[in-house]
Design a protein that fits this description.
This protein is an alpha/beta fold. It is built from 21 helices and eight strands. The chain binds cobalt (II) ion (CO).
Amino acid sequence: MAEITKKPIKITETILRDAHQSLIATRMTTEQMLPIIDKMDKVGYHSVECWGGATFDASLRFLKEDPWERLRKLRDGFKNTKLQMLFRGQNILGYRHYADDVVAYFVQKSIANGIDIIRIFDCLNDIRNLECAVNAAKAEKGHAQIALSYTLGDAYTLEYWKDIAKKIEDMGADSICIKDMAGLLVPYKATELIGALKDSVDIPIQLHTHYTSGVASMTYLKAVEAGVDVIDTAMSPFAMGTSQPATEVMVETFKGTEYDTGFDQNLLAEIADYFRPMRDEALKSGLLNPKVMGVDIKTLLYQVPGGMLSNMVSQLSEMHAEDKYYDVLKEIPEVRKDLGEPPLVTPSSQIVGTQAVLNVIAGERYKTPTKECKAVLSGEYGQTVKPFNAEVQKKVIGDAEPITCRPADLIEPELAKIEKEMAEWKQQDEDVLSYALFPQVAKEFFAYRKAQQDKVDLTKADTENGAYPA
Ligand code: CO
């Protein structure tokens, strides 16, 4: 019998980032993560995605945690596993374009604090918006992965994907990820897409998808058979629904085949046992809404990523307009077309989603355009695959001249100015970056941190003065 050539499929575990971002609004705390990372470190993951995306904002805003401190603690615990983050190109982790000096400094500090692999994407797939972050990652000897936001539409042919993949390889990226945030990639299309990409480039290809439309694990199966190198999965308690396929299920699927991961299912079971009570608690408190756990086949029709769905539900319920859910779902593809048919991923997903909500609620399209919608139509986010709807553009930006260059070319260096602005709060270099990304939220966090420290100092002084028994 012929020996089978082993080509173990590599796995990126997402439970510390995308999984809880997708299912429980990014509310997992560092304290909840730390007790299990010793076991996670023994699994043999290709990498653990644990930082970036919404975790940075959520840490500062809701959890009152320093995201940099989280990263350092995770780095300390993961001795053998590569740590991965998600990075929105020129937006970093925020919602506007930053100057190149801020982008480069953020990359430098991320790597210095423990990140190995930076997954960089742009919501419009405008690769000019990735150059600065990729160059910075290379300069710091990090692994620069470029993620292409997967989407459907007339412009998104196999030729489009092959062509852009080639450009990415030429840019010097270490690997490519197809980032299917909405779960739009169906199994046999994955065969075609991964096959085409493998033909086009030599660097490794990773696939990232969400379970939203119910096809994700089949899509992985076909992608693996077509030669994909790495897949993203989440431990079962925070898998499926708007999150990723379950790690244990994929591991078992490939057991005994040429793609066998070699992972220990008993170890995985112990890790799952650790996270399961967290899931139960989230279900009980309502943080995990059972609505996002089912199969939503409408995502294939409306191309709405998981996170966007849950945002929309809460936006509508705040306005007591839950009955407009399906009207908004119908408006989303219309807004998307008006804005040049971009992929729907942060922040384009929020921009399109919020504008669709406003268009429906106002009863007149673009009566109340958001600042971000105006920015897109002014070219401030970069180039879309298709042209904008000229009529809509005129209504929203009037006679203003849209820009066509790489947007960051118009932004002066801003790091020094930002540092000066926040000097009174600075306790570590990284604070400048927290402030650069979320000025208001960071300031509130810094004030909170200061108050905590003062409290500790007071207690210490009292203890030293013998006010408390030792
Ligand atoms: Co994702």
